[in-house]
Amino acid sequence: MQSIYAMHQNDSDNLEKEEKFLFNSIENIRDLYLIMLSALVEIRNSEEDFIVKSQKKHLATAEDRNPNKKFINNKVLEILAESNALSIALEDRKINNWKLNDDYILLLLEDVKSSEVYEKYMHNRENNFEEDRQFVLDLFTEVVAPNEKLYDYLEDHKLTWVDDIPLVNTLISKQLKQLTIEGKDAFYVPKLYKDADDKEFVRNLFRKTVLNEVELAKEFIDKTPNWDTERIAEVDAIILKMAICEFLKFPSIPVKVTINEYLEIAKEYSTPKSSIFINGILDNLIKDYQANNKLVKTGRGLM
């Protein structure tokens, strides 16, 4: 939807170029995921470095010489730091943002150490896996993920990440909840696509919508007698075209799935009343398609 909208805004008709941008944007979601996850590792590493330097001070205090290492010995942070899957993914995607911008890690570490989550966790020196996991989850969701300076950095680094941040943070939180003590191989970096068909669906939906926009628009124009075409919000028009494209050109996708998906997109990206407007049009279209045997869906439960 965003890629088609961008094409309209730029008056672009270069399908190949815009499709490449679409797939690059999807690839960048993985980069954002790796950057957010590696931030946890780098925060831990930064604290470890601070402790080592403090111990070597000429006038080291008793606390400097015998610090509470519970944070740097956190089992979950150790699993992430020793994860082969994470290390390989970071190397493969050449993710070194925190090496180049370690000042952000220092700012995050400062916020971590001043947080209630950290203070409560560090009340003793004993590590327990369940407590370690809950601490890292709380630390990520309450301190790291909502950090405004980090958000500003990500927004400045790549504008398309603004919409991807909630998705990525939710995924990381889910993984942290499910992490077990099995060791460094217990953690995995999820794939961007379920399979080759999943990726091909992206390509097909984009192409079939763009290449058939005029025909797809004709499907709903007659269903909006009280609305001039120019009065329909551009995002709403794109959502309707994509939904109709799925109705008519993707026989394996259930009608209800299509409707639910696009209503959610409308609620997120369009006007407050858009979802009601779109739902009404799609509902009428479905009735017409069924009456005229125009809707061909394959498989069980696809209506």
UniProtKB/TrEMBL annotation:
Gene Ontology MF: a single term: RNA binding
One cellular component (GO) term of this entry: cytosol
One Pfam family per UniProt: NusB
Biological processes per GO annotation: DNA-templated transcription termination; transcription antitermination
Keywords: RNA-binding, Transcription, Transcription antitermination, Transcription regulation
Residues annotated as domain NusB/RsmB/TIM44: 194-287
NCBIfam families (UniProt xref): nusB (TIGR01951)
Family the UniProt entry places it in: Belongs to the NusB family.
Annotated protein name in UniProt: Transcription antitermination factor NusB
